């Protein structure tokens, strides 16, 4: 395996499609309008595409196929979900689901000519027969504002598809509160050696809102014991309880003791072992670092913009290799320091999973 330091030097942060700072709403709207005027789904057509009840959401897959053909995407209806499959001509693939917005698979092209799954997912079934998928790349955000405003984006609709299979594919999702005062735009971009997750929050209300939460990526590994975080030396972090969402994969506790004491520390190793069970929020981490799995001979570079914090979690090595807990979780975070979005402004942040193994 080539050195991780060489990998890091070859990757630079891609430009964020959505500005990662507070912007004027009209400027942000112009960015999206210019990119998607041809294929954008009009509000008048929404009823023919996705219909919802109190418990289910159904999708018109045939409409999606007709509307977005020629962009390297395909659609499949599974139970009450729609799977959007993205595939480039070089063989790299990714899949995400509606209405959850969960990215369930990312298979980039590797040096040996094949593809390898980067993400870790767990599929289970509830007593009522409902299929539950956890892991992957997920969003967990909560907004709060004046007059008791509370909202969390959980139902996502398809807004646009751009690009082509020979260059890049970009899927745009949207989620809005009931009064459409706060909009979340989520851009998932598949490139030859990159999977991007870009988020923009637009506040059209008359008061500021605060957002807390994180993007979480469950990376599949041979075992946390063979996995290392490279490039975080000197970064300050707090030990915290694991971040919990509907998509988190957390093993049952080994004992009743609090194994995640709320303390502040500094990373003293540039190639830090992820063998132990830990949950950390880094507050001064660099904008990119690498996760290296010596067991699978694979590396992933994670880059972030907009978010100040970095979340890193390991379930530890007391589990079966290549099993359901053979993963580590990383992602940009706004947990200790909420994001404040002023009235009439927008904020953007992103995560990029880069493949250095070509």
From TrEMBL:
Gene Ontology process terms (BP): carbohydrate metabolic process; photosynthetic electron transport in photosystem I; positive regulation of gene expression
UniProt-recorded Gene Ontology molecular function terms: carbohydrate binding; glucose-6-phosphate 1-epimerase activity
Superkingdom of the source species: Eukaryota
Transmembrane segments: none
SUPFAM superfamilies: Galactose mutarotase-like
Annotated InterPro entries: Gal_mutarotase_sf_dom, GH-type_carb-bd
GO CC annotations, alphabetized: chloroplast; membrane
Protein name: Protein NDH-DEPENDENT CYCLIC ELECTRON FLOW 5 isoform X1
